[in-house]
């Protein structure tokens, strides 16, 4: 490493020394030497006449100030300092860049045959020297010049204002974005595409052209993205009163992309995974993912673009809020219960794990080395939970009033998380003083509850104790303001009205102290409590429920989420107990009552199929790991599989009946049809472990008229290691080997294959014609799924899984550090495993640390992990 990477601290924020009000860009596009000319209107705001601009991997050609060649400057590592600038001037900088050599996929790069950009968080500095920080907002004009035959479409932000032809078969298009924006929202695309076009008329009557650009030949996979976009625009008007503000909205799908998508103003660039879908190529999960991500990026137009972040420590201001908005969008359009369940699974699984890892950080981090490392589940998903808690505390009306005030105060500017909370507080009159701690405190709180029924007094008390364990980044923790949603039931299932001090009280209790007791009056019988309903706060709940109480809640709780949660708690009890048993050499057991409870759900006529499927889904290995300080990989895997086998065997008749009766003749993508497929395929995932498994999987694969059923058959064959696995995998690969995106599902199955020789197979698979380590989707599908979702093989005692991870990481460190830095996460948690495994993982981390070109993305994580 040239220099030890330096951390930046939130507390060191300083407002910019200069303003850039306008920037005019010209790109002369060539694969290896693209010229970028940037002319900025610069205004000095503070004392210094030196302007410091960020830049990386740029060849500086010239600098002019007000048209005059300028020599008063220093080229530094990662920056350019221009001295003796007039208080106001026009600064022109010409640089040269090499898009084709850009494998990091940040800045301007080539994806397949097209040029595209990714500038968030700090990628614009790879395009030109600039004040690459989100609180510098400028109006952009962009001229793109390229070969007309190869790149008929030349796109940038805003409206197309001019175009023309040039000699030598080149042409140009000029774009102008009327909305001032930070550099991270800049985008440029040049390529040859098929275009799906539609229109949207906003509530105030603005006509908006909608255009989705996809690789040639993929037009039949674009309509779902278009429908999702139109639904997003409508929903944001109806639920938030927010309307689109340009005459055109473009989405471009590219195959090489580090994350899901990017909300560049008026020109979203998407990973093709979140655009392309038809029934032959995409699963229901893909369809729902596309709807959510299209919505998410669209919603950023207000929460992110119109009001942006003052500095990157405030990232959750736009991301937490926009995740909340996309979750609400999906819930309003589909099943609220199923959406909530899936969001909660992410928090309880990987987000809690992140809180407990060396990378733990508050949703508003205090210290960052590489910003790209902080696009995390904590900032996004926990950030969304924090917004959701405010929504719970304020109610929909109060929350919307807060949003309105937030836009009134901050539209067109760069704001902070504090600004958002202040708007919520001021609009609602509800104090969020203690609540603000959620922004600065990291880690997962545990809420321990005990209850006491006093028959003589007819009172029922709940004592709530909260505590947060120290995390690597923060030793001392304080009591948080936790909205704690409870309900009490009589033995026959009716709801008991909550009364304290002779007054009715709301079912969302304000837990604000380390220990607090709530006494409810007029409680005529010992009730069953439903606690942390709707997962009203991102905490771990501890309450000593009996099996009977949980089974009761599975049937009687008023909302579906609480019923699902009771089922999960029941499973958790048995999984924990069985892990202990297995460790003592005993067999795995489930009580008849538990099996019957799940039978009851399966047979229920009034529950939605999608919901039943969720109730039957066991917690993942990763979620279960989070329950332990040190996890016994083999015991947990054994128990999870045994529980599945027991349920499959005991519920064989019911599962078979559902499986055979719920086959749909024709394919449709409405929510009811998705739910029915989910239930049927969940049934198959159990039946795979019975005698009929092989026949059912084979039959379903052969009959399937959609990708959801195809993949469900293959995945059942993969998990249960059915005989038909190989032939199904072969057939699929023969059919789809030309299509990387469709092959990703196959790569993921190779990565999660529980077979003993999986690592050899994975290494072979890396030679598959559709595979390339240069493509982030391929890498995540094969390697990522092995590291994250194949615990037994990845954690093989021999250490071969770790060694493989180390090799891949060293390679990606030079080609694409962002992807490497995502992949490394499971290794950071080495303290969770036994000493032998710890030593093996540590050796890989040490080897990475000693590399002399270690990227700062990996440097930050590796050093934190080794400090732990
Ligand atoms: N804002 C982008 C993420 C950028 C990630 C940079 N490493 C997509 C999103 O959250 O909508
Ligand atoms: Zn986002």
From TrEMBL:
Protein's UniProt name: Aminopeptidase N
Molecular function (Gene Ontology), one example: alanyl aminopeptidase activity
Domain Peptidase M1 alanyl aminopeptidase C-terminal as annotated: residue spans: 547-867
Peptidase M1 alanyl aminopeptidase Ig-like fold domain segment(s): 443-544
Domain (Aminopeptidase N-like N-terminal) ranges: 25-185
Example of a GO cellular component annotation carried by this entry: plasma membrane
Domain of life according to the entry: Bacteria
Pfam families, per database record: DUF3458, DUF3458_C, Peptidase_M1, Peptidase_M1_N
Database matches in Gene3D superfamilies: 2.60.40.1840, 3.30.2010.30, Neutral Protease Domain 2, Peptidase M1, alanyl aminopeptidase, C-terminal domain, tricorn interacting facor f3 domain
Membrane topology: Peripheral membrane protein
Originating organism: Vibrio ouci
GO term, biological process aspect, one: proteolysis
Subcellular location: Cell inner membrane
Cofactor(s), names only, from the UniProt record: Zn(2+)
